[in-house]
Amino acid sequence: MTKRTFGRPDRPPRNALTQWLSKLWIPWLQGGLLLIIIGVWVAAMIVTAIPSLFIWLASCLTMVILLGSFVLMVRQSKAANTLSYHKPMVEALLRSEAVPLAIIDPQGVIMELNEGAERTFGYERAELMGNWLASFVDAGSRDALHTMLEHSLTGCPKQGNIHIIHRSGYPLELHLVCAPMVQDEKVIGTMVVSHDLSDRKRNVERIRYMAYYDDRTGLPNRTLFQMRLNESLAYAHDHNQLVGLCYMDLDRFKLVNASFGREFGDMLLMQVAERFTSVMSEQDFAARMEGDEFALLFKDLESEEQLLSRARMVLQAIEEPYELKGFPIQITASIGAVTSRLGEDDDYALLNKADMALMKVKQNGRNDALLYSESWSNYSFEHLSMQHEMYRAIQRKEFILYYQPQYDMISGGMIGVEALVRWKHPIRGMIPPGDFIPLAEESGMIVQIGDWVLEEACRQNKCWQESGLPPMPVSVNLSIRQFVQHDLASKVADVLTRTGLDSQYLDLEITESMTMDVNHVSRCLLDLTALGVGISIDDFGTGYSSFHYLKNFPIDRLKIDRSFVRDIQQDPSDAEIVAAIIAMAHNLNIQVIAEGVETQEQIEFLRKHNCDEMQGYFWSAPVPSDNIEQMLGGYYM
User: From CA 21, how far away is CA 58, in angstroms rounded?
Assistant: First the structure.
């Protein structure tokens, strides 16, 4: 026989002896079975120093010990029989931690439980065993628990909800299933299985939140926005009010995301959302639709002009500088706006019109707000149709390359060509790049087109060389989406390997706006120059001009934008800018080529200021590859 002792904390009273508190249990085991538990109680009253009380107290203690031992021995005997009869099922359930389970005797006392039940209540096993289940239940639920347990004792299962207070202090709602345990056609106890409804309710709330709100910004999402928009349109129609809808997109956000990473981009999105919602009223509504796109709903407007005014307030709030992880960031946005006064449009129609206005803003240069005009409907259809056809054009290989010659300013000889993509549509004919390049950039298809242009230009240049023409570099424009790819250098190396073109005959052109992320640009340009390709800055003077990056980046050539060259004879400011760019570049040992040269006067000015190369319609428009072959043959044959 083995004897073990362990302490027990106070527990709620469970019979008429309400003035006694259990302080110690002494279990006696034999063969691994519990035969008897001796319960020792201490009176809750204050015992004075009166001698007769000691005799009375000793008698009480003796009586209570014997009574408690007998009661517990009977309970243990009943529980042992119950567990023995249901042993296979009970043991399997008790081993399972996922389903909280307790076995209750007919008096409502916990006789057995598993770890799942311990976690649910928050108490240790020793604190639960032998206590009334009702003592751990909220007072307001005890009647419901009693009803379920009493019902199960009639032989029929019963289920319902109760509330408990977890040991840590927080409330829980449980769903209980009380199933009778029957032996020899007699109910000997109840098996109680519980399920935490609090978790389910929290999960339901979480699912609801995920269904209607954006995790990144905390703003409503597209689904909830369209619900609110429909409600607002119905109310505005009934009360003759004007509702305004704005569709907003952050300008060049993808560059920030690609340059600094998604975490950085998410931080910026959160700050932008906080910024523009701070200038909106409580009755207005904002949502994140997807990516860097947001929708704003303005109610009870007086006019379209008021909507435009509020939209521009939002833009002003957004363009204030941000600081993220010590980096100063400035970003702008574009907004397309529409009002409900333009007909009986539903939510989808209004969103489409606002989106069309947004596209118009982007075409006009971004960082502005514009109201939708009904005259754009035909344009919108054509725009969407072209996007679909452009996707098919990539598959059908409808894109072709034209080449514009580049000339030495002193000798006048051809020293290179620039590859320019054209779309040869089977029905529309030749589509100008200005009609499809912006759409390709917005849709992301510019990467596929750009990859094809790079390989085709290298292949064609190699073909010219193999046909006996003198070698010269071909210039290829990189889109911003291509430039931010981490594997750009390896892609270029693969193209050179496949086509067999020597790297010295490839020149890659980037724009100034691509040089914002100094770390990425430095790594990328160093990787590219390590291959031996040339690097040119295209449209110099129109973007984020900085002499600093010219000094620190491996730049071989600057291309003066045509907008400066065009007016050098009429505008003294443009003339001074061009002269300064040439002088500055030469001081940094960088070659200069002027774009858009169309007159003899422009050539004379550029020669006077020692410009190295020129390109423009004065010499030749962009032409097919066969024309270049003829032109080169004329010079060298």
Answer: 16
Q: Does residue 262 fall inside a structural domain?
A: yes
pTM summary value: 0.46
Q: Compute how many other C-beta atoms are within 10 angstroms of the C-beta atom of residue 194.
A: 21
Same domain, 346 and 301: yes
CA distance 318 to 330: 9
- Give yes or no for a contact between 25 and 8, defined as CB atoms under 8 angstroms apart: yes
Which of 47, 70, 85 is the C-terminal boundary of a domain? 85
For residue 377, is it within any domain?
Answer: no
Residue type, 541: G
- CA angle, corner 347, sides to 341 and 349, nearest 5? 75
| Same-domain pairing of 142 and 60 | no
CA of 561: how far to CAs of 512, 558, 565, 571, in Å? 11, 9, 7, 15
* Range of the structural domain that residue 610 is part of: 394-636
Give the model's confidence band at 59: pLDDT under 50 very low, under 70 low, under 90 confident, else very high: very low
Same-domain pairing of 428 and 533: yes
Which tokens go with 598?
Answer: 């169309």
Please, how many CA atoms are within 13 Å of residue 472, restricted to the half-sphere of its CB?
22
Domain-terminating residue out of 195, 212, 229: 212
Q: Which two tokens stand for residue 274?
A: 């906080």
In this structure, is residue 384 part of a structural domain? no
Per-residue H/E/C for 392-435: HHHHHCCEEEEEEEEEECCCCCEEEEEEEEEEEECCCEEECHHH
Residue 225 belongs to domain with CATH number: 3.30.70.270
Residue 385 resides in a domain: no
**Tokens representing 400?**
């072709």
CATH of the domain at 114: 3.30.450.20
Q: What angle do CA 368, 288, 448 make, to 5 degrees?
A: 75
Task: Note the pLDDT tens digit of each residue in 367-379.
Answer: 999 998 877 666 5
- The number of distinct structural domains making up the chain is 4
Q: What is the pLDDT of residues 481-507, one digit of tens each?
A: 898 888 999 999 999 999 999 999 999
**Counting beta carbons within 10 angstroms of the beta carbon of residue 269, is it exposed (0 to 12), middle (13 to 18) or buried (19 or more)?**
buried
Q: Mind spelling out the 3-state secondary structure of 137-155? A: ECHHHHHHHHHHHHHHCCC
